[in-house]
Amino acid sequence: MAISEITVEQLHRLLAADESTRLVDVREDDEWANSHIGRAVHVVLATVPERLDAFGADGAEQPTYVMCKVGGRSFRACEYAEAQGKNVVNVAGGMMAWWAAGHETVEGA
């Protein structure tokens, strides 16, 4: 099955419209500390198998949006999570696109 994707603009609108929108950031600790989206949950890519709970309930109707720096690691996380029954959507362009669009971020662990 193909992994669904959305743009950062679509994600920005979803986050603004619905506080229950779930977002997982799979970048490394130093990347996260440098800058991340305030509502994101941090799950380092290598820990995804142990942290599947962060991706919502199996078969949940509302998807979990997954992002990284440019979209490759989040795509791999989506492939794994989807194979485990999670409803996930990759954020195309990742944080690079988010920053380029000028959207708000926070710093620190």
- Tally the helices: 4
Taking the sheet with the most strands, its summary is: 5 strands, parallel
- Strands side by side in the biggest sheet: 1-5-4-2-3
Number of strands: 5
Helix content: 25-40%
Averaged pLDDT, please? Answer: 95
Write the element-wise H/E pattern from the N-terminal end onward: EHEHEEHEH
Terminal CA distance: 35 Å
- Please state the structural category: alpha/beta
> What's the overall geometry?
globular
What is the percentage of strand-forming residues?
15-25%
Query: From the alpha-carbon coordinates, what is the Rg to the nearest angstrom?
Result: 12 Å
Low-confidence stretches: none
Summarize the structure in words.
By secondary structure, this protein is an alpha/beta fold. It contains four helices and five strands. It has helices spanning 8-17, 29-34, 72-83, 94-100, and strands spanning 4-6, 22-25, 41-42, 64-67, 88-91. A five-stranded parallel sheet has the order 1-5-4-2-3. The longest helix is centred in the C-terminal third of the chain and has 12 residues, at 72-83.
